[in-house]
Write a structure and sequence with these properties.
Number of helices of chain A: 5
Structural class of chain A: alpha+beta
Shape of chain A: globular
CATH architecture of chain A: Orthogonal Bundle
CATH class of chain A: Mainly Alpha
Bound molecules: manganese (II) ion, zinc ion
Largest interface: A-B, 40 and 40 residues
Number of domains of chain A: 1
Radius of gyration of chain A: 17 Å
Distance between the termini of chain A: 52 Å
Oligomer: homodimer
CATH topology of chain A: Arc Repressor Mutant, subunit A
Order of helices and strands of chain A: HHEHHEEEEEH
Chain lengths: 145, 145
DNA sequence: ACATATTTGCAACATAATTGCAATAACATG
DNA sequence: CATGTTATTGCAATTATGTTGCAAATATGT
């Protein structure tokens, strides 16, 4: 229909969400970064043009639709990253390792790294795994050398 | 009970902490439970006898001394459990798996379950691992059957 | 019992997140 | 392109978690 429609707008429509400025802006920001983006950072860069509450609702809607996923860092701060693929409103499939760099404090989605399944005591039924590794990221390691 | 008091008092003294009511009460509560205890729960059961701020400071001191460790659940809520191993002021070594039950919402320290080390891309240097498994705990599984 | 360093309570502040409601904007329909 | 319906937003208020400064209280060695 409309060839001007961007891929973000398609994503919104596909998920039954109206294409509003706030939503497009969040998608723009998140997709332009190589690591997860914290809620405080988002709130700061989006400024007062978009209300805090709207940002929270946008993030919540995106998470529910499987457009983004949330990663809590070691301080409990919410960080968001675009889901790579296959996630939808019914299920997220991004059980990859997240890497929290002690130096630059970026949180990387290590999409290719599956979480190794631990052997839990009998009786415990594991449904989801969430592994956060902390240390020094590749970029920071390079800088030092 | 009296034995406990003595044991806890020794623990405090050993760590250069004065044995105060608030600290002993926190140790009592945490040690009497089979799973990690959330800050909100602690605040509730300790009531207004102990100020919120004092509770925060007690928890912070205990964590620094290696007496307890903090586990953030999937909502980012702080939960605390007594350290089993020889943790001290210089280092925690309780990198065990934590199990967050979807049913009873208890967080278990699976002391015996080490976190399997993931293979991260070259350049990334892992220093710590934090794995939280969610699912149904042993007690809840039993109840259903 | 006394001196002193630690610990506590209080008040104030900071930040993250949620809710209800009214105003507004998106968009399907004609 | 005007209009009606519905989703979305902004605003104000509220809740929850956590921190800081400071003065009062208390634990402890002497
Ligand atoms: Mn991710
Ligand atoms: Mn533990
Ligand atoms: Zn880094
Ligand atoms: Zn359970």
């Amino acid at each position: 229909m409309d060839n001007n429609i961007t891929r973000f707008e398609e994503l919104l429509v596909k998920n039954g969400l109206k294409r509003t400025g706030a939503r497009l802006q969040v998608l723009e920001i998140l997709s332009g970064r190589d690591s997860a983006t914290s809620q405080p950072y988002l709130e700061q860069v989006m400024g007062k043009v978009v209300d805090r509450v709207t940002l929270y609702r946008v993030l919540q809607a995106f998470e529910e639709k499987g457009i983004i996923h949330k990663v809590l860092d070691s301080h409990g701060t919410a960080n968001y990253a675009i889901c790579s693929d296959g996630c939808d409103a019914h299920q997220h499939h991004d059980e990859h390792v997240h890497f929290d760099c002690d130096n630059c404090h970026k949180i990387y989605c290590l999409e290719s790294v599956k979480i190794p399944v631990p052997k839990v005591p009998s009786g415990f039924k594991v449904q989801h795994l969430n592994l956060i590794a902390t240390g020094i990221c590749s970029a920071c390691t390079d800088k030092v050398n």
